[in-house]
Amino acid sequence: MSGKELVRGATGRLRGHGVTALVGLVTVILYAVAWPTLHITHQVPSPVQPIVAALAAWPFVLVRANPALGWAISAVSALVIPRVFDLVPASGYTYPWQVVHIIVIMVLLLAVSLTAGPPTVVVAWISTVLLFLADTPGEDGRGWAVGLTAMVVFGLLVRWLVLSRRQLAAEEQTSELERARRAILEEKARIARDLHDVVAHHMSMVVVQAQSAEYRLTSLSDEAKAEFESIGSTAREALNEIRGLLGVLRSDAEAVERAPQPGVSQIEELLDGTRRTGISLSWNVAGDPTSLSELSGLTVYRILQESLANAARHRPGAHVTVELDYGTSVASLVVVNGPALIAVDAPSRPESSGGSGIGGMRERAAAVGGTVETRALDDGGFEVRASVPVVPLA
Fold this sequence. Notes:
- It comes from Rhodococcus xishaensis.
- The chain crosses the membrane at residues 21-38, 99-132, 144-162.
- Helix content is 63%, strand content 9%.
- By secondary structure, the protein is of the alpha+beta class.
- A hairpin with a 3-residue loop joins strand 2 and strand 3 (330-337).
């Protein structure tokens, strides 16, 4: 979660606590007004006055948490109080409820119109109008009915306006996300075009040259033909992977149908193909490869592929040994190559070449909960030691 989101969340919680405290304070004030003045307007025994005043004022505390329940309590008490307690004749007060009670029921009705469902709003509006028509003196009931209806309509209009603004903000956010997604897709398409122009084109030329070498060049030995065939096969495999990558880049990530990724079932083929390129390679594979998950198998394959490529690039002519053990919980891979036997302008350590091969291997292993350790050997060789869990760690 970002800092802005934390600040926004904290601000929202503080605002909510502030509103709750304000509602509680107003409720206490209304109760403090209703209780001392109740004996002026209604003939209520002193022991019962706190209860009747509470029925008039305390429903207001639900105006934010549950206005429909607060309105129901206030309406029922407004129906019962005039029929149980008479007005004080000498007071000149003619309404059946205290002013506090009238204020509370009106505010709760407005809150219901702002927050409750349509059926609840209709029931609360009709019930309140009928209550005022039945109990208010003279012609006042009609005026109250019109006023209460106008208040409910006002609440519904405000509610519609707020909902419209929220919907508009949500649509604007959706449009912004869609624009960002479109920009990402356009950038991916541009990268795909560049990769196609720079890499796929040249790889295609390598395949064509390797396949046509025996027809263009005379007096090729069988070994040379086999070498060109190996070069063409390797280049075709690389070209197929590049085409798969370009397909992903050109497509929507949510809809693309990805081609099957290589895994442990292709490791023997990878080792055989590497040996056919002329690299001195020996390997020993133990354990059950089917125990590895698809993701762990892909990780082992990619680490082995990068290790063999590094050995060929940085230690040309060196013998390479591969030890692969599919354990019950962890698959271990060790790739060791000796010193270079062919003079080449290459850095003493693969990671000092400026590439990202070893870093990529470590990232792949870490993504599934594994590790990759590398070290230069005293004889000038290099060792890669990887440990990958059979099932990726969450």
